[in-house]
Amino acid sequence: MSTRWPYGSGVWGKKEWLIPHLRDENIVSMGEGGTNLFWAERFGAEIGIPDLWIKLCGNSHTGSFKDLGMTVLVSVVKQMIVDGKPIRAIACASTGDTSAALAAYCAAAGIRAVVLLPKGKVTTAQLVQPLSNGALVCELDTDFDGCMRIVKELTQEPGVYLANSMNSLRLEGQKTVAVEIAQQFEWQVPDWIVIPGGNLGNVAALGAGLDMMMSLGLIQKRPRICLAQAERANPLYRAYERGYERFEPITAGPTEASAIRIGDPVSVQRAIATLKRFEGVVEQASEGELSEAAAAADRTGTYCCPHTGVALAALRKLAARGEIRRDDRVVVISTAHGLKFTQFKIRYHEDRIEGVESQHPNRPHSLPNDFEAVKRAILGTLDAEG
């Protein structure tokens, strides 16, 4: 995180471990990475895991961990173009966060971005990001898996380059999350890492970073990994319950965790291999469980996206059944900033999430412009709370 280009980035400070042959003048970076490892002291105490930390990957340029992979991919493509490769555009299918990262980094590089989104299935904040950065945005009347099928065909056309996480360049950047966690714990690794999963490139990248540090002798053990899925988009959980003897894609249902609403993840085999190496488990969270976990964490100082809510809900389950023990050090990967999912927060506090009865809604008190009325309301509430 120095001031010398390009080492101000948490990703490019590790350039030699990622893309050592990349020329510095082709790096497209916006200070990604280097994110806070938040000690979730109060939430951890509530669930009986006092050594609980949340890696806030959403504190990034476009508000999600996708920046970590996109800076690498767009930088490599920029160098390919400089070296004469006839690439006209970089394309992705997205549930929102990937498109925002691709559009921003392409805009900075002067490369055309093409984004395929499932119509009506991303938040307004996620839709406006690629539009603002000048991407060519196509809303398709399908789900993410349908967008993925089309973008894979599209990138067979000359001059269109694929940006989804099946491209290993993305995983090179995302593996730096594992390195940062180890750095922040002075080259110790936690006992558990809990990560939400949709297209599943994130768990493969996490494993790659940990494996690299093991091979270099920087860390001495592997943490266990919990991959958390939304109950309505849980194909890996179903395979895990069958001992991975077969994986079957599903049609993912509507979920507040929209960025992981994926029924046919492209990185599933890499994810399964990673989970097997790391004694991994897969857990799921219902809409009520993810909503309440996010709300509980928010009341202790975070501002969780719904996908982090999925991971926190899975953690609650593992802690309740004793699989994660009280003396374990646990890191939860928060994949995006909660501000990208404001409507999720509003619906929760207005008790409007379908099928969920909000346990801790918090609404503003409407009062007249009168000191006595304000005093009565505030002091009455404080007295009631004891």
Explain how this protein is built.
The protein is α/β, with parallel strands linked by helices and 386 residues long. The protein has helices spanning 41-47, 66-82, 97-109, 124-132, 144-154, 168-174, 176-184, 201-216, 235-241, 268-277, 287-298, 306-320, 342-349, 371-385, and strands at 37-39, 52-56, 89-93, 112-118, 136-140, 160-162, 192-196, 224-230, 281-285, 330-334. It folds into two domains: 12-61 and 170-349, Rossmann fold, CATH 3.40.50.1100; 66-167, Rossmann fold (3-Layer(aba) Sandwich). The strands form two sheets. The protein has a six-stranded mixed β-sheet with strand order 1-2-10-7-8-9, sandwiched between helices. Strands 5-4-3-6 form a four-stranded parallel β-sheet. It starts with 36 loop residues before the first strand and ends with a helix.
Can you give me a brief rundown of this structure?
The chain is an alpha/beta fold and 386 residues long. The protein has 14 helices and ten strands. The longest helix has 17 residues, at 66-82.
Q: Can you list the strand order of the major beta sheet?
A: 1-2-10-7-8-9
Structure classification: alpha/beta
Quickly count the helices: 14
Shape descriptor: globular
Averaged pLDDT, please? 95
CATH class of the largest domain: Alpha Beta
In this structure, how is the largest beta sheet organized?
A: 6 strands, mixed
What is the ordering of alpha helices and beta strands?
Answer: EHEHEHEHEHEHHEHEHHEHHEHH
What is the count of distinct domains? 2
Please state roughly what percent of the residues sit in beta strands, choosing from under 5%, 5-15%, 15-25%, 25-35%, 35-45% or over 45%: 5-15%
What name does the CATH topology of the largest domain carry? Rossmann fold
**How many strands in all?**
10
Which value, in Å, is the CA radius of gyration?
A: 21 Å
Give the helix proportion (percent range): 40-55%
Separation, N- and C-terminal Cα atoms: 46 Å
CATH architect. name of the largest domain? 3-Layer(aba) Sandwich
